[in-house]
TrEMBL record:
GO terms for molecular function: kinase activity. It comes from the Archaea. Belongs to the carbohydrate kinase PfkB family. SUPFAM superfamilies: Ribokinase-like (SSF53613). This is 2-keto-3-deoxygluconate kinase. Residues 1-295 form the Carbohydrate kinase PfkB domain. Coiled coil: none annotated. Keywords: Kinase, Transferase. CDD domains: KdgK. It holds the Pfam family PfkB. InterPro entries: Carb_kinase_PfkB-like, KDG_KDGal_kin_Halo, PfkB_dom, Ribokinase-like.
């Protein structure tokens, strides 16, 4: 059984070569990407056995997703659906002023019909950590119920639950997200949330340290990690707030950076590192991810520690 089990949607990502436009390109590069599978891959690259749970169509596109994720080294445990489609999304890459844009095409995806009883509860309850994100309950009413039930099952099995708030404005309104995601808080041990989401969705005020402290002291979380983009992250743990600056990088692709951060943080906590050290590894992994095309952090532990060596003169112990 894996130490880390994740649950959520993974899509096929279609991208024109270079900075070409979707309306003109004759070629599309195919990769896979999804918050929960991205986290699983990042954690696995840092030495943690990880399994991704989901529901995919039993067709060539669903099989493509599963095959690619298995090629990255994680285990897959999926429900093969006879109905529903494979979700996709399209990415146009560009610099300023056009910028990178994303078009989603995920309506009717097989994963949106996943019920809790279809998911491998044993895998979740035998894991040390169960991870999912706020994207999953945003996809359908069914997945809102399923997410709630899976978090409850994990808690009942003694599995630590980690949840990335991961608000997506293209999926739902701030008020709808606040109502649903706040209701999940009792089932969450470790919360990861962007500072902007804490302010704009939850309506909290203050700087990142204050946000982390408010969330940690108000709810029954063990740990709260507040990410803040180019400024790095802070984490509240045992009433103490730890701060981690971002590491400078030449960005090739920012998509998946937050997932790389979370996967590395979870991985290092699983192997017994303290919160400040886990934050260091997370920042270094996120920096490396930004140099890699696609959604997935194809890094090694040696590369991550090499970045930390350059930044701090050595890995904290």
């Amino acid at each position: 059984m894996s130490d880390l089990v994740t649950f959520g949607e993974t899509m096929l990502r279609l991208t024109p070569p270079g900075n070409d436009r979707l309306e003109r390109t004759d070629t599309l590069e195919i990769r896979v990407g999804g918050a929960e599978s991205n986290v699983a891959v990042a954690a696995n690259r840092l030495g943690v056995d990880a399994t991704w749970l989901s529901k995919v169509p039993d067709n060539p596109l669903g099989r493509r997703v599963v095959r690619e994720l298995e090629g990255y080294g994680i285990e897959t445990n999926v429900v093969w659906a006879d109905e529903g489609r494979q979700g996709t999304y399209y990415v146009e890459r560009a610099g300023a002023p056009r910028g990178t844009s994303v078009v989603y095409d995920r309506e009717g995806a097989a994963v949106t019909t996943t019920r809790a009883q279809e998911v491998d509860f044993e895998a979740i309850q035998n894991a040390r950590v169960f991870f999912t994100s706020g994207i999953t309950p945003a996809l359908s009413d069914t997945l809102r119920e399923t997410t709630t039930n899976l978090l409850k099952a994990a808690k009942q099995g003694g599995t630590t639950t980690v949840f990335d708030f991961n608000y997506r404005r293209k999926l739902w309104s701030p008020s709808a997200a606040r109502q649903t995601l706040s209701s999940l808080f009792p089932g969450i041990d470790v919360l990861v949330i962007a500072a902007r989401d804490a302010r704009n969705v939850l309506g909290l005020e203050g700087d990142s340290r204050q946000l982390a402290h408010k969330l940690g002291s108000t709810h029954d979380f063990r740990t709260v990690v507040v990410t803040r983009g180019a400024e790095g992250a802070v984490a509240w743990h045992d009433t103490v707030v730890h701060e981690q600056p971002a590491i400078e990088t030449d960005t090739v692709s920012r998509i998946g950076t937050g997932d790389a951060f979370t996967g590395a943080f979870v991985a290092r906590r699983l192997v017994g590192e303290d919160v400040p050290t886990a934050l260091e590894y997370a920042a270094a992994t996120a920096a490396l991810k930004r140099t890699i095309p696609g959604d997935v952090a194809l890094v090694s532990k040696a590369e991550v520690e090499g970045v930390l060596e350059e930044e701090t003169g050595g890995v904290s112990r």
